[in-house]
User: What shape does this take?
Amino acid sequence: MPIIQTRDLRKTFRSVIRGEGLGGAIGALFSRRYEEKVAVENVNISIEAGEVVGYIGPNGAGKSTTIKMLTGILVPTSGTIEVAGIVPHEKRRQNARNIGVVFGQRSQLYWDLPLRESFELLRAIYRVPRARFRENLAHFVEILDLDRFMATPVRQLSLGERMRGDFAAALLHDPKIVYLDEPTIGLDVVAKEAIRNFIADINKRLGTTVILTTHDLADVERLCRRIVLIDEGAVIYDGKVERLRDEYGTHRTLIVHLKDPQPDFTLPGVEIEHGEPPTVMLRFDRHEITAEALIRRVTARYAITDVAIVEPEIEDIVRRIYLEGYQKPPARAAEN
Amino acid sequence: MFAVLEPYYFFTLKAIAREGTYRFEVFTSIASLAVRVYLLRVVWVALYARNAAPHGVPLHTIITYSTVALLMGLILDIDQTRLLHDKLHDGSIVVDMMKPISVPFYLFADGTGEVIFHAALIVPSLALALLIVHIDVPSAPVLAAFALSFFLGYFVGFFLNFMLNCIAFWTLEISAVQLIVTWITDLLGGQIVPLLFFPAFLQQAIFALPFAAMFSTPLLIYIGEIPPARYLQVMGLQVLWIVALGAIATLMWRAGARRVVVQGG
Assistant: This one.
């Protein structure tokens, strides 16, 4: 029984069509011409309790719209959603007790209150039993290192401190599911790592289901076994991270350090990117040629000192999918 | 029961604490009130020196009226639900809608905190005003009727303010509308000039408006222009306005919240 299930989820927005220039702006005051814009199209997602899913896609792909529908603050145009047995937009407040939400770009802490009082307020809002609250808070204070700024008003916190506070705030009531919308945006490497460890920890210790949207694919690689790729409102890939790498990341790069610089280095049938001489980089499809065969071909013509093979980064794979669209993986027949 | 209300109780407490942090504003609002008490006294004394008392309202009564009106303004002039406009403006309303709370009740609790804080300012303001002018004090039953009518007037004002801030659901910006409503309230509410001084043919209409229900009704009870025999009638009208404006505010909130959930804000 999945904890999150959507069927044929669809969301369209109406926006006013507006002409150009001043005339258009004034015309828009009176015009009631609308155009339909599809934000989410036919999304079918099924997520089991305890999964950590990376929900990724380019800007404007429909990620936030999906998350808003899952939290119940946006009503789908058509299709169905069920989150922990509840239809979110029908029982928004009941659904709210089951979920925690962290927005990288927006805080749920109370701006002019010290962090400690924000937590106290959230305890009342979610009706967390006091003993449970103290226990959770003590734990979060320890692993997120909140002690130094518990008495500081939120508006005076640094981004890294505020994000750590926001994570504690989202999890104080032991939600079954957390939605993390770009939680590491703008953070330095140390803060990012702290946040990633925290997410991994709550997932492991409490079995919390995590839906993570991010543009930092290092977050995905570190945390998610499953990835859902969305583009122009539609899901274009849903499966294991390794499978995506396997199917789509067929191109590896062989880095060759030549003994002497070779400005006119060529090798028929291989895509060459010249690096800093005497280094050349050869991009090859591992279904077409093995690394060993490629190295043999290079050494047959040139003297070399060193080689290295670079596996495709998930980031490169995703970038190519954004640019070129996801195509069915090439046939595996060429493997041998 | 307490668990249900506890968050709102906290919202109120936090709003009181928040208002207290703007200390400079506290001092300036008391000081500006004293200045206005003095200026209105000067104006009325000058006007009365050259004219017969209009409608038989003596000078000391009119000074009492305008001073009490200024003190009431400490509470009634507050933009209690400005938070709604702010949240719509920066989009943070979605964060509140993701919490298991009633957002309008949250706004009411926050506004109440603000009002409680400003109500506490009445004491020093009154003390300061008494150094400048003399204020007539009516009998205890009249004072009680005034307090009740003032309380009702507060709710009329609350719903008007809530309606005003709800406009931000559609326009995001409300300062122009707000300015117009402030002018109308100043003029037709009776805070500056008693509505008794308006031409007779206008009075019927003006007294029936919700603006009069905020300031004028409690004030005319205070100075005895509304006799006890009419208390039921005038307070009944206040209650009617509370019900009507409350209903409109509810509809506006629902339509606005629907707009957020359908159009994504």
